[in-house]
Amino acid sequence: MDIQNLLREFRYNGVVLADPNEAFSLAQVRDFYATVYPEILSADIEGPQQVGAKTIYTFRRAVGTKGGASLAGMIRDLAELLHANWFGPGDTEFIKDLQEALHKNEVARIPAAASLRLIGLHRAHCEAKAA
Known about the structure:
Layout: E1 7-12, E2 15-18, H1 26-33, E3 43-51, E4 54-61, H2 68-79, H3 91-103, H4 112-130
Parallel strand pairs: 1-4
Antiparallel strand pairs: 1-2, 3-4
Helix pairs in contact: 2-3, 2-4
């Protein structure tokens, strides 16, 4: 009996994306690639589809959304860490400001730079959790 490990491959908008870390969950992979493709945050994950020795997952953008639900989820995830002193200087106030925007239902108005900062913090948290 020959046991073969399947390699994960990710696809988004016609681009083949390598698996950044086989220990990452599918959501963590999506968060990882969000630094390059911010719109991927609102994408659905389809698959797996097995092709030979590969397991292929496809990120499909949700039509009509701007990532607000995903950003809201990241804000909630990180807000749970406020009491743990996990954040660096300035990050605590940043997360509190985002919580306020979430409370006012203004997540879609978060500037791109703030979204990228949020994604970076969330990715760092996910990587720390995975380690």
